[in-house]
Amino acid sequence: xxxxxxxxxxxxxxxxxxxxxxxxxxxxxxxxxxxxxxxxxxxxxxxxxxxxxxxxxxxxxxxxxxxxxxxxxxxxxxxxxxx
Length: 83
Description:
mainly alpha
């Protein structure tokens, strides 16, 4: 239960960070989304190495940050380039 609360809290921080980064003129939201997706996949690839509770919490913090970053970047990309 503790790891899911870490994931949720860091997810909010990831969304806020992505929103602030997407507002910078020279940062493209699609690149930000692609970088977050790669880092999220990297966290998932390293998941089998999580053998203890602290490493599982570290995974949930990293995954939560990057998945929040990715979801916010997708919304920024759609709002800027599609509409």
